[in-house]
Design goal:
With about 325 residues, the protein is an alpha/beta fold. The chain has helices spanning about 1-10, 70-75, 75-80, 85-95, 105-120, 135-140, 150-155, 165-185, 265-275, 300-310, 315-325; strands at about 20-30, 40-50, 55-60, 100-105, 130, 195, 255-260, 280, 290-295, 315.
């Protein structure tokens, strides 16, 4: 229904006044998915308030390390060797983002990779809001079998030419975003905008092994499986679980904390702060979980559903940040 509406009303005359004045559709290719990974290419399509393309920009970036999954993005060490460093393109990148809503497919990933690069460069990206096209397609109720970029593109008849190439992925997303935006405007739907908080603190973990590995491929050392995704193992929490968090009281060392959904602060930084405060960060939710942290308690994620079933207390990111400031020591 919404697809027919978007086709019939190509540009609604009554445009929602609360909608943003411009968008920066972004795609970044990276050396991996972890917090220590780096951007190796980036593309931005700038769109006006109604989703029309104004211009586009693309750059390679030298990550100063192994390029990671070459079989996915196709960018080898030789290709990236002469590319500019991120700090050399940070100004131009910022100019493309300034004053616009960052739009990406799985936007939290792209935003966090960008925010981390700016933090390394001791700067900030001029972005205050982001819009995830996955969240927008859910808001519109698009009949998609899954939420892959190629599926969204096919729904709107957009032809993908070079998957996992930042410039083509950004083009495809820009072309799919325009009818989505118009459908939202025509139906008066809210845009699922999320806050972007620049990183004001940063520390890299241990540097991965750089260079050619046995067998002639590039990758990380220390992995028997050959995975390009470094594991992030935390030490066991030294304190016993004191039980559920009770509203109005303090968190206590040893409590099991689970996270669900998008966060404004880098998720791994939130987890680091929780661990440093003596809390146990749980990757799943069980009857033993003390607290669930989520900014979307009405979502249908498995953790939120289980929290309802088990009666697990739920707070948002802002409340959790306040609780972290005064965690009660463990008994003894």
């Amino acid at each position: 229904m919404l697809e027919d509406l978007a086709t019939a009303v190509s540009s609604p005359t009554e445009w929602p006044a609360a909608y943003p004045q411009g968008y920066a559709v972004v795609d970044v290719e990276t050396t991996g998915l972890a917090r220590d990974d780096r951007i190796i290419s980036a593309a931005v399509y700038r769109l006006d308030a109604r989703g029309e393309v104004q211009d586009h920009w693309y750059t390679l970036v030298n990550p100063e390390r192994d390029p990671g999954p070459v079989w996915i993005h196709g960018l080898t060490s030789e290709v990236l060797e002469g590319a500019p460093l991120f700090r050399d393109v940070a100004g131009e990148f910022a100019a493309r983002l300034s004053g616009r809503v960052l739009v990406a497919h799985n936007a939290v990933f792209d935003w966090q990779m960008i925010a981390r690069e700016y933090a390394r460069a001791e700067s900030e990206a001029p972005v205050r809001q982001r819009l995830c096209t996955i969240a927008l397609s859910k808001e519109l109720g698009l009949p998609l079998p899954n939420h892959k970029l190629e599926t969204l593109a096919a729904h709107f008849g957009v032809v993908q030419q070079r998957a996992h190439h930042a410039l083509d992925d950004a083009r495809v997303l820009a072309e799919a975003f325009r009818p989505s935006l118009r459908a939202a405007a025509a139906s008066g739907a809210r845009l699922p905008l999320q806050e972007c908080r620049p990183l004001t603190e940063w520390r890299d973990g241990p540097a991965p092994l750089i260079g050619r590995q046995p067998g002639g491929s590039y990758g990380y050392g220390g992995s028997s499986s050959g995975s390009w995704r470094p594991s992030r193992k935390r030490p066991a929490c030294p304190y016993p679980n004191p039980g559920r968090y009770e509203e109005g009281k303090r968190l206590k060392q040893g409590m099991r904390i689970a996270f669900s959904g998008d966060t404004s602060t880098d998720r791994e930084l939130l987890e680091d702060r929780a661990v440093e405060a003596g809390l146990h960060v749980a990757t799943s939710l069980s009857r033993l979980t003390s607290l669930l942290v989520t900014n979307d308690p009405d979502s249908g994620t498995s953790k939120v559903v289980k929290a309802r079933q088990y009666g697990t207390p739920v707070v948002d990111e802002a409340a959790f940040g306040q609780l972290l400031a005064d965690v009660e020591p463990a008994d003894g």
